Hints:
Helix content: 55-70%
Order of helices and strands: HHHHHHHHHHHH
Structural class: mainly alpha
Number of domains: 1
CATH topology: Endonuclease III, domain 1
Amino acid sequence: xxxxxxxxxxxxxxxxxxxxxxxxxxxxxxxxxxxxxxxxxxxxxxxxxxxxxxxxxxxxxxxxxxxxxxxxxxxxxxxxxxxxxxxxxxxxxxxxxxxxxxxxxxxxxxxxxxxxxxxxxxxxxxxxxxxxxxxxxxxxxxxxxxxxxxxxxxxxxxxxxxxxxxxxxxxxxxxxxxxxxxxxxxxxxxxxxxxxxxxxxxxxxxxxxxxxxxxxx
Length: 217
C-alpha cells in the first residue's frame, strides 16, 4: 500500500501520462464532481485533479489516510487538506515506524501545535494505530494487503455528487476488521472515504475527465 507523500499516494509509473492528461480539468468540473457549486478552493481542486481516487498502496500513504480521516471527524475535509502539510511535518511523513516511537512528550508537542487539529483522543489514536501497523509488519503482514483486500469486485460510478454513496458493505467490513485490530476512529463512513481517496473505488461522477482517466489505468 503506498503513501508516498507525493500527496496522493504511490502510483505506478504508467500513471504519469494519465496524470498529466487530466491536469487540464477546470474548477467548474471539480466543483460539479465534488458538489461544491459556489466556492472554488484551489487546494480542493488540486486534490480532485491529482489525488482523489488514484491508487494508494504505500504503507505510509494508507496510514496517513486513515489518520487524517480520523482527525476529520466532526470537521470538513477541506479543513484537513489545508492543514495536511503541517500534519505531514509533525507526524514524520506518517511513517508508521517513526510515529510508533512517539512518546508522551511528543503527544504534548502535537497538542501544542496550532497548525494542526489538536485533539488528544485522535492524536493518541494515530500513534496507537502506528504501533498496530508495526506489529503487523513484525508478523509479516502489511496495511496495504489488509485494506486492498476489501476492494469491491464491481463498482459503478455515480451519476452526480448527490448520488455518491456514503458507505458500502465492504467499508463496514473493513471498519470492523480495523476496529478488531485496535484502530479507532475507523467507522464505516470514514473507511468508505478512505476507499474513495485511495482508489479502491472510483467515485468521480460520470463524465468527470479525472474519473475517466482513472478508469483507463
